Amino acid sequence: MEKLISDFSFGLFVWQSIIFIGLILLLKKFAWKPILDAVNEREEGIKNALLSAENARKEMHNLQSDNQRILQEARLERDAMLKEAREMKEKMVADAKNEAQAQGLKMIEQAKAAIEGEKNAALAELKSHVATLSLEIAEKLLKEELSNKESQVKLVEKMLGDAKLN
């Protein structure tokens, strides 16, 4: 350190100081401003990137919330549609059963009416046939009874006796 102090030259010191100050001024004019601008630009880029990332995170969160809400609405709508479809199916089945039952009852009533009509027709035919047979039998009996005179007299007397009783 003593050697430095003993070899100290004032002129050299002034020239070194002038060169140093000039160098600082040159650096300030040409280097510091671009360096500081680059650093500031980089800082702004980082801030913008962080803001963009934060906005993207918020947007992603909002999208997830919207997706959850849309999914929930879709599930509710699907459940409502399924419930409505089930109710329509049950109504259609019930209507079909009621209609089938009504048609069955109608067919039964028609069959009963047809049976009753057939029965009445058969009874009328049977009565007609019985009446015809009865007349034929009565005719044959009367022919036999009335074929001789003595039988005719007995029959007339019997009828007169029955008429007095009534």
Can you give me a brief rundown of this structure?
The protein has helices spanning 2-6, 10-145, 149-165. It has 166 residues and is an all-alpha fold.
Task: Show the helix and strand layout.
Elements: H1 2-6, H2 10-145, H3 149-165
How does this structure look, described?
The chain is an all-alpha fold. The chain is 95% helix and 0% strand. The mean pLDDT is 87.
Supply the key terms.
0% strand; 166 residues; 3 helices
Task: Give a short account of the largest sheet.
Answer: none
- Give the assembly state of these chains: single chain
The Cα radius of gyration reads: 66 Å
Distance between the termini: 182 Å
Mean pLDDT across all amino acids = 87
Helix content: over 70%
- Tally of alpha and pi helices: 3
Query: Would you count the extended β strands for me?
Result: 0
Alpha-beta content class: mainly alpha
Shape type: rod-shaped
The proportion of strand residues reads: under 5%
Low-pLDDT parts are none
Order of helices and strands: HHH
